[in-house]
Write a structure and sequence with these properties.
This protein is an alpha+beta fold. Helix content is about 35%, strand content about 30%. One of its GO terms (biological process) is negative regulation of translational initiation.
Length: about 70
């Protein structure tokens, strides 16, 4: 993992297409802006975790239903 220190107004580039802009720093909260092509999905980490967990639950439920229907 790369760890960088940035101040408000400074940027970070990821590849040629993605720019991260530090817009504000207040205490422990950092506000960022992201400029990226529309074809790149940008999802907050906690939402990605929730979706992953929901998908896992759905698969388990589907497997349980299949097992019950095969009896």
């Amino acid at each position: 993992m790369l760890v960088l220190s940035r101040k408000a107004g400074e940027t970070i580039w990821i590849g040629e297409d993605v720019e991260i802009v530090i817009s504000e720093v207040k205490g422990e909260q950092v506000k960022i802006g992201i400029r990226a092509p529309r074809n790149i999905d940008i999802v907050r980490g906690e939402l990605r975790q929730d979706v992953s967990e929901s998908n896992t639950e759905a698969v388990v439920k589907s497997l349980d239903i299949l097992k019950q229907s095969n009896k």
